[in-house]
Amino acid sequence: MVSFRATVERLLKKIWKNVFVFRLTGEPPQLREIIESAYIPPSVKTQKKESLELLFLNEQYVKENYDDFMSRYSGFGEDLYSLLSEQLPEVFRKLTFYKGIVYQTEDSYAVFIGEPAFGIQLDPLIEVVVIWDHSRHAEFSSWLNDGHSAVLEYIQKGVDGAWLD
Q1: In whole angstroms, how large is the CA radius of gyration of the chain?
Q2: According to the lineage, what is the superkingdom (predicted)?
Q3: DSSP string, 150-162
Q4: H or E stretch covering 37
């Protein structure tokens, strides 16, 4: 993932390399070229940043693929991702799956890298599906007659722009 820290580290390496070359050859550093070479297109910056910011800071995560999720997760919402792949394949293709490794290790997390970026959490212990972005939070559970269709409808509305204020 491209982060601010990685960009700064890349810049510092290039600057120190130029300082070293300057000391050896006397050729002045080309700072403008160094800065321009560290440019990351906004879409890449935004997508990577969004996925990191949507995950909870007090937890540590490892990425997992869909097959890993299917083999380890059983509980409420376990068929949500397969329904997403069937009914909203454009959303499913842009999901990155994560597993918490410190606190809620049984939960599943997925982040949608698109517009708008949002997160999904499946919690088998309290039987809830949580959908959130930077400004809203919605929970779906067994208290709904057909919770999965409500979740899919909510996600579709968000992707269609209904969440935009």
Answers
A1: 21
A2: Bacteria
A3: HHHHHHHHHHTTT
A4: helix 31-37
In sequence order, the β-bridge partners of residue 64 are 97
Tokens of 12: 């510092």
For the record, the structure tokens of 162 come out as 């209904």
CA atoms of 42 and 98, how far apart (whole Å): 24
Cβ neighbours, 10 Å, residue 64: 19
Residue-by-residue pLDDT tens, the chain, 165 positions: 455 666 666 666 767 676 666 667 777 666 666 555 555 545 444 444 555 577 766 678 888 999 988 999 988 888 899 999 999 999 999 999 998 888 888 999 999 988 888 899 999 988 899 998 878 888 888 776 676 888 898 888 888 776 655
Partners of 112 in the β-ladder: 95, 118
Q: Which residues lie below 8 Å from residue 33, measured CB to CB, with a gap of 6+?
A: none
Tokens (6 digits) for 2: 């491209």
Q: How far apart are CA 134 and CA 35, in angstroms?
A: 30
Tokens of 134: 């930077």
Residue 157: how many CB atoms within 10 A of its CB?
11
